[in-house]
Amino acid sequence: MSNPSHLKSLTILAASILSAVLGSVHGFSVFLVFLENAFAVNRASASLTYSLALVFLTLAVLYGHRFYGKAPPPIFAICVCLLAAAGAVVAAFAPNLWLVWFGYSLIFGTANGLGYGYALQLAGQALPERKGFTMGIVTAAYGIGAAGAPIGFAVAMEVGGFYAAMMSLACILATTGLVTAILLQKSGARFQTDIQEETSKTSATPLQTVWLWFGFGTGVAAGLMAIGHAAPIAQSLGMSKSTAVAAPVLISLCIIPGAVLGGWLVDHVKPKSILFWLPLLSAGALLLLTQSNGGILLFACLMIVGFAYGALIAVYPSIISHAFGAIEGIRIYGRVFTAWGSAGLAAPWFAGILYDLSGNYQQALLTAGAFAILSSVAAATLKLTR
Q1: How far apart are CA 122 and CA 359, in angstroms?
Q2: CB neighbourhood size of 71 (10 A)
Q3: Higher per-residue pLDDT: 279 or 225
Q4: Which superfamily does CATH assign the domain made up of 200-381 to?
Q5: pLDDT (tens digit, 9 = 90+) per residue, 5-15?
Q6: Domain boundary assignment for the chain
Q7: What is the model's pLDDT at position 5?
Q8: C-alpha span between 297 and 360 (Å, rounded)
Q9: pTM, entire model
Q10: In which region does residue 136 sit, left (phi positive, over 0), alpha (psi from -120 to 50) or beta (all else)?
């Protein structure tokens, strides 16, 4: 008979697999040119597909806590995956961009947020004494999916275009639903809504929520301004077009160890120290980038930014869960997560505006560095107990 630690490992494994597959939503850029040509639309309209998906993903994380306890984990996981697969199928057969938005942005984006938020919190409940580390693993898995999806999508596009990519995604999602359901059934996992520790926890004050939202939003905005423009930033600082392609790959890969280490730190270091120093690390790298002329220094700075971003997106949900409890923490994180959605929409766009105005990325990098510093200021101001 399996021991409890083995059962907990199965739960964390299932949550990580689910998270990794859902991370594919961030491989969308592969489809941009195809959607432009297929539906005779401009780049802004095609890009709106991804932007809308992030909006619905954010809303699903915000309101997901209302649904997490409604079904056993195996049923919830397979329903989320089948819903996401249905959205991919609708997008595959869409005769116009409006139906792509309905299938990919609305249905798949909503299912993505429900599944990611659920996987994150379920993993944290599986090992409450090390919830920072387990939530970091699930966040890292999401990053792995985001880094690997463009490769798979590109292969599918070569074979059968957007239709083949979406149908392949639907098949993978359906299979993932079955696999995670089996693992969760074997682990005996239960999403807890009546945890004993809640009696000793208090809800966040409005001011705490505001500072958490502001700190998280400015911290991830700093990272997203660089991540969303990594390749052109490298080119503008002297890299050749072929070499600059390595920039987004490296920055994405560094998100993964950042998430794992960030989650681990939550279990061992004072929360405010982590929230203060991580953005400063990113700020230093961003400001140093403005003085770079390419080469190893450029790649090193971008990798540090990716690492700090990965750590921040793992640290905030973990710290919130530690501070306010496993149940109340879910509600609070849902509100704070809207800062990520806002940053995801605005930060890369704002970096593009600054580039258009100046003809280079100096102002964008300085602004990103300023955002990171503001995140540290918010952390220093935040009153947070363990």
Answers
A1: 46
A2: 14
A3: 279
A4: MFS general substrate transporter like domains (1.20.1250.20)
A5: 667 889 999 99
A6: 4-187, 200-381
A7: 66
A8: 18
A9: 0.79
A10: alpha
